[in-house]
Write a structure and sequence with these properties.
The chain is built from twelve helices and 17 strands. By secondary structure, the chain is α+β, with helices and mostly antiparallel strands. It folds into two domains: about 20-200, Rossmann fold (3-Layer(aba) Sandwich); about 220-435, Aminohydrolase, N-terminal nucleophile (Ntn) domain (Glutamine Phosphoribosylpyrophosphate, subunit 1, domain 1, 4-Layer Sandwich), CATH 3.60.20.10.
């Protein structure tokens, strides 16, 4: 049995461990590039590794620690004090056990972790994070003591467990020459692994040996490269907000909509490939029309979400077709069932939500949503918060120009899904921009 050195006492977080300084020194001396990359500081403690990545131009840095107090009392203040005011748009913070984080984290170019392999009982959780969160050509750096006396963890056993999976190539890129023996383990995906992936990603009907369908994962990646879309459900309706990226000044304002009417009482917001999204929109409209012709009434949004989910899932089963590269959110309102919101992803999975996000900044958007008491909010309040979220998560470095697209359905619209009126749109946009400026001013005050 393995245990902490002092039973029941949390020893990490507020202490700067030697291996963290080793890794910082290595990253600096070797001029490891972070510019434009997504980085995870795993088991971050004071957050020095992630702060180094931010200062070197990382596109985004996520900080994770087991202990919430460490993040709130140490990591977050450190990050704010040592970076520019816009750091909030580039960072996210997560607390909890590694086993509970898979649905919160995204994919990363670089994962940095220090003093996290002291307990062998946690090795498999850590390796699972690596398997699910590192990008195809990503790099992982693990700084650790050669052996942890009293606990049993050591670099050799961890590396041995990693090598049981042919996916990984490992190498020791640093070894201390004084004091307690310390090492830095560099982990990359093997060329053989990429070759193996190529054998199993030619058809949506084929599983890889570890149970993955790569064509579906590629479709999900198409969604992640899209502008952010959010949908919120309150006490009297559902609202949609989409960050519609403008890649050319020649585009006509309002073109290429990403919020659609499906039926009089149902709206849909989409993220991902627009052409694929339009096919899903037409399919959903046909389903609604057929239901009305057959039963003489409005199609329930849950039934429609299930039909769309089955349609999308069918395109993951056959080699002659490919999955749809889009996710969609469906919202409706009526006097009987009240507001309802569903999201369908590229694999054909459908769930009901109080709030959902799609696109490149979905994780940051979800973090903002979790701060809201959605069940108690009116449609107007939801609109303001949805617009605010879009402005907060927008990446001004990579995506300078965007249009905010808004739609709503609820008691205020008599149950009809509509584009938000211009006067309301202007008020909501002013609120969002003002809130963003207030956040920036707050960041300056903190510094």
């Amino acid at each position: 049995m393995n245990s902490d050195v002092i039973s029941g006492v949390y020893e990490g977080g507020l202490k700067i461990w030697e291996c963290t300084l080793d890794l910082l020194d290595y990253l600096n001396k070797e001029s490891v590039q972070f510019d434009g990359l997504d980085v995870l500081d795993l088991g971050c403690g004071a957050g020095l590794l992630g702060m180094h990545a931010l200062r070197k131009g990382a596109h985004s840095v996520h900080f994770q620690d087991y202990n919430t107090e460490v993040l709130s009392l140490c990591t977050i203040p450190n990050v704010i004090l040592n970076n520019n005011p816009d750091v909030k748009s580039k960072t996210n913070f997560f607390a909890g056990d590694w086993g509970s984080l898979h649905h919160k984290l995204k994919s990363y170019d670089i994962i940095l972790t220090s003093e996290t392999i002291y307990n062998p009982e946690n090795y498999r959780k850590l390796i699972q994070i690596f398997e699910e969160m590192v990008k195809k050509n990503g790099v992982i750096y693990v700084a650790a003591k050669h052996f942890y006396f009293g606990v049993g963890g050591n670099v050799y056993e961890f590396e041995k467990l990693l090598r049981q999976n042919e996916r990984w190539n490992t190498s020791i890129c640093f070894c201390s020459t004084e004091g307690v023996k310390r090492e830095i383990l560099k982990i990359v995906q093997s060329a053989d692994q990429n070759h193996q992936r190529a054998k199993y990603d030619l058809s949506a009907s084929q599983f890889s040996p570890d149970g993955r369908v790569f064509q579906v994962e590629y479709a999900q990646k198409a969604v992640e490269n899209s502008g952010t879309a959010v949908a919120l459900r309150g006490k009297d309706g559902v609202v949609f907000a989409v960050e519609k990226l403008v890649t050319s000044k020649l585009y006509e304002t309002g073109a290429n909509r990403r919020i659609f009417n499906i039926d009089t009482h149902i709206g849909m917001a989409v993220a991902g490939l627009l052409a694929d999204s339009r096919q899903i929109v037409e399919t959903a409209r046909t389903e609604a029309s057929n239901y009305r012709a057959e039963y003489g009434g409005n199609i329930p949004v849950k039934y429609l979400a299930d039909r769309v989910a089955m349609y999308k899932h069918a395109y993951t089963l056959y080699s002659a077709v490919r999955p749809f590269g889009c996710s969609v959110a469906l919202g409706s309102y009526d006097e009987v069932d009240g507001p309802q919101l569903f999201m369908v992803d590229p694999s054909g999975v459908s769930f009901g939500y109080l709030g959902c996000a799609m696109g490149k900044a979905r994780q940051a958007a979800k973090t903002e949503m979790e701060k809201l008491k959605l069940k108690d909010m009116t449609c107007m309040e939801l609109l303001k918060e949805a617009a605010k979220i879009i402005y907060i998560v927008h990446d001004e470095v990579k995506d300078k120009h965007f249009e905010l697209e808004l739609g709503w359905v609820g008691a205020v619209t008599q149950g009809r899904h509509q584009k938000v009126p211009q006067d309301v749109y202007s008020e909501v946009e002013r609120y969002a921009k003002s809130a963003l400026e207030d956040d920036s001013d707050s960041g300056n005050d903190d510094m």
